[in-house]
Amino acid sequence: MQTLPEYIEAIGDKAAGKLFRVKPRTAMSWRLRTRFPTKDQADVIVKKSPVTYEGIYSVERKRDAA
Questions:
Q1: Three-class SS of residue 26?
Q2: pLDDT digits over 29-62, tens only?
Q3: Cα–Cα distance measured from residue 7 to residue 51, given in angstroms and rounded to the nearest whole number
């Protein structure tokens, strides 16, 4: 499953902004996880990309290498 940040990283902030009809800065904030899409924005993302709702709202925590 591809997450929203991974998808935006792959296509770029500008292309994601255009695809999802938001400013590139908004796409960047989603990629960096400083903000999350609203329900209406998430609906657009799911319709126009391979990302699921889980890929939008799940937050994976990276473990420190031990």
A1: helix
A2: 999 999 999 999 999 999 999 999 999 998 765 5
A3: 7
SS3 assignment, position 30: helix
Identify whether the C-beta of residue 50 lies closer than 8 Å to the C-beta of residue 11: no
- Report the length, in residues, of the chain: 66
d(CA 57, CA 49): 15
pTM, two decimals, is: 0.87
| Distance between CA atoms of residues 62 and 64, nearest Å | 7
How far apart CA 29 and CA 65 sit, in angstroms, is 27
18 with 41: CB under 8 angstroms?
no
Contact call for residues 46 and 54 (beta carbons, < 8 A)? no
Centre a 10 Å sphere on the Cβ of residue 12 and count the other Cβ atoms it contains. 14
